[in-house]
Amino acid sequence: HWLHLALRTCIPELQPTSRGGHSKRTQLVLSNRPSTMSEGWSERPLDLLQTGTPDGKMWAASSLRNLAATSAEHRAQIVDSGAVPLLIQLLSSGTDEAIEEAGGVLRALAVNHQDAIVRAGAIPILIELL
Would you list the DSSP string of 19-64? Predict the structure, then answer.
């Protein structure tokens, strides 16, 4: 139930339909189209990562963590959206829960996008967290 709350809070269009699947809008939002980032799922979590309350930042990172765990396409969309620097910033300034969620997103992204994480300056912050 906490996942549904996170999805409703940060990514309303990702709510499952009553039939257990996802709406056509969700399928469109999750498609690999160049306009996906400007029209779709990432605007709310990115806004929350930048200007949200501490809880809002944690929920945004949690939603991105769940999405990143689902596919390489989603991981690429998260990286392309510019979320990596915001997640790294959250590592050094977030609550314990937000740091855990941001670390989880970065761990999932590292499967295919280690270079983006390194270029964004994560290494010194990650070492500091050890």
Answer: TSSB-HHHHHHTS--TTHHHHSTTHHHHHHHHH--HHHHHHHHHHH
Please count the other Cβ atoms lying within 10 Å of the Cβ belonging to residue 26: 19
The identity of residue 117, as a single letter, is I
Separation CA 51–CA 89 (nearest Å)? 12
- Output the pLDDT for position 67: 92
Q: Which residues of 70-94 are buried (b: 16+ CB within 10 A; e: fewer)?
A: eeeebbbbbbbbebbebbbbbbeeb
Contact 76, 67 (CB under 8 A): no
Neighbours of 109 (CB within 10 A): 24
Please list the ranges in the chain whose pLDDT falls under 70: 1-43
pLDDT at residue number 43: 57
